[in-house]
Amino acid sequence: MTARAADRARYDRATAHLDAPLAIVDLDAFDANADDLVRRAGGKPIRVASKSVRCRALLERVLAKDGFAGVMSFTLAESLWLARSGFEDVLLAYPSADRARFAELTGDPKLAAAVTVMIDDPAQLALIDESRAGGREVVRVCLELDTSLKLLGGRVRVGARRSPLHSPAQVADMARAVARRPGFEVVGIMAYEGHIAGVGDSVAGRPVRSRAVRLMQSAARRELVERRAAVVRAVRAVVPGLEFVNGGGTGSVQHTAAEDVVTEIGAGSGLYVPRLFDNYTSFSGRPSALFALPVVRRPGVGVVTVLGGGYPASGAAGADRLPVPCLPEGLRYDPQEGPGEVQTPLLGSPADDLLIGDKVWFRHAKAGELCERFDALFLVEGDRVTATVPTYRGEGRTFL
């Protein structure tokens, strides 16, 4: 029996008493992935990205481990909810225009002490001030650096379109704008190199593209190491008491951790290891989050139909954004239908061994987005479900 076949047998035994659709997290794999992130971080703390987990119980589990400290959230509403739930160090990784929540933040000393907001434009500061509704608490601010690689005088750009702050002078000017404005304090810098941390460099069947990605990432790392250090020097000249410099991502943990100016690493997807993280040379992990769909039809030889399955991930539309059937091995989508909202036909010889009610196991393309489809995660240890925990959705929290 192959390792994957053994996993399928374990998962089927563990969930034999449960009806699909359902989602699981294999805790042995989850914990092993957490340990690997800590090893790669080389002693620097990892701030766990909540959008890649979207389950409070699992956030608490990983933060109880040595090597993890703090949460990187994705909306202001989520940040306040987490802070009220006992998470004491929450970095909002994206700017917000949520006026009602800014009024809550600036009016509550506990929330203001626990939550740091992201800024890259003076207009964002004005929006927060306009939202205060009498709140006088000092707002903790993190400045985001644009990490994109710019070539040919800026005519070619590689990387996500995030912050407009690219040069050390621009970030330092933003720090001065915050310092001049009462009610705000710069405490950190964040620089997420998504084109390095979030792009696979070893895509099966595409050797030329893979080599091009590796060359791009190598050049981008060299450029960013120098520019990030210069940015930190420029900002520390304005804010000597800077508390943290956050960088990285699952695919670049060890590279970013090696930079002296970086004080903490942001990562989260490496805990679940979704399918988009299969194509990396820098690390390998164990898929820990899967979902199962039930066989409900057998249309013919070599075909079964499962209930549901149309769970695409965000990003540029393409086949790599679709979940993949992984257990039993050898199933594939019908190219004329793909994964459907209500039903999904699957082709391949393993279909002939599946009966009505059997489970087919899938992996989602991106990590935490799986949790937007399920109210609960069944936590598996060995061949048993040892706990059932709610996802954000299961707690009635759908932030985006």
What does this structure look like?
The relative contact order is 0.17. Strands 1, 12, 13, 14, 15, 16, 17, 18 and 19 form a nine-stranded mixed sheet that branches. Strands 2-3-4-5-6-9-10-11 form an eight-stranded parallel beta barrel, surrounded by five helices. The protein has a two-stranded antiparallel ribbon with strand order 7-8. With 400 residues, the chain is of the alpha/beta class. α5 (99-106) packs across α7 (122-131) and α8 crosses α10 (207-238). It has helices at 3-14, 27-41, 56-63, 76-84, 99-106, 109-114, 122-131, 168-180, 194-197, 207-238, 253-257, 269-272, and strands at residues 22-26, 46-49, 68-73, 90-92, 115-119, 139-144, 149-151, 156-158, 184-191, 244-247, 264-267, 289-300, 303-307, 324-327, 332-333, 343-347, 359-363, 376-381, 384-390. α3 links the parallel β2 and β3 (68-73).
Report the portion of residues in β strands. 15-25%
Assembly state:
single chain
**Over the alpha carbons, how many angstroms does the gyration radius reach?**
22 Å
- Structural category is alpha/beta
Shape: globular
Give the overall average pLDDT. 93
Q: Note the gap between the termini.
A: 42 Å
Would you report the number of β strands?
Answer: 19
What portion of residues is helical?
A: 25-40%
Largest sheet: 9 strands, mixed
Helices, by number, come to 12
